[in-house]
């Protein structure tokens, strides 16, 4: 009998607050573990969280990382686990260990800090340019999540073979629901009624200040709340300055939330009148598709990877043109329309499809070494 391929997965991201890279690993590997010809070794400091996500199938194993420190993890902890368990492939995101005992799979979600350096700290750019490029050169399989990011990696790092394994939309967003019931639940929990929503962590490139300007200058606060959901990673001085200048009556219509559970997140999406995604640069932009899948008018920036969502039919806007966004908001509020592109999203952005692309590349690579 042919020996099962052993795949190690670096899941240290599960020891942190919820991030998009965690969603990627969760969705992809919940599909991949259905392949019994492979054994999967998931590693994190808190393995109990991993077991909740990936279950207890015979081909699923859990390894405990000794430390949370990034450098110790990559230099000592992970190479030791890979060697001890005779792993054939190890999957990382962005940065791989310098000591190599097996083949490396590396998912690079984007290289936005090289394309848009003005939105990232100097030290972040210098450090990660070296680490990401070195990691790509020492990886055997390079994955990414969009055509835009694929072209970035090929051009900036001079790499030919990059495979797209797209992010996908959780089935819960496609499920039928009663809008009025959802809105009552939101009102009870958050004390808000009609609202716009923007889901994204906070960085200057995320353009929260632009959305706030449109919301205030067009007096939307009279009839709506603005709900901003996401971790505050980097300070947006323009947003802070505008927000601090507003009277309390308007500030009270701006709701800032972070560290929400997935259940609360999808509740807020489904209860919104409009979802708006004004980011200047993205490697993907999954909240755009999640809102559309839930039937919420989903407005999005027409830059970078978000151009791929043109099937959402004229809901894109220029993230530097406030009039453009205002017009798109008014059109969607007046129409009260639901998004009608659910089948396209289901077909193109699902984890089963991404897992098939992953396995195809893995099997091709594995056959070359036999």
UniProtKB/TrEMBL annotation:
UniProt key word Oxidoreductase: no
GO molecular function, one term: glycosyltransferase activity
Alphabetic keyword roster: Transferase
UniProt superkingdom: Bacteria
UniProt name for this protein: Glycosyl transferases group 1
Native source organism of the sequence: Flavobacterium anhuiense
UniProt domain Glycosyltransferase subfamily 4-like N-terminal: residue ranges: 20-170
Domain Glycosyl transferase family: 189-342
InterPro entries: Glyco_trans_1, Glyco_trans_4-like_N
SUPFAM superfamilies per UniProt: UDP-Glycosyltransferase/glycogen phosphorylase
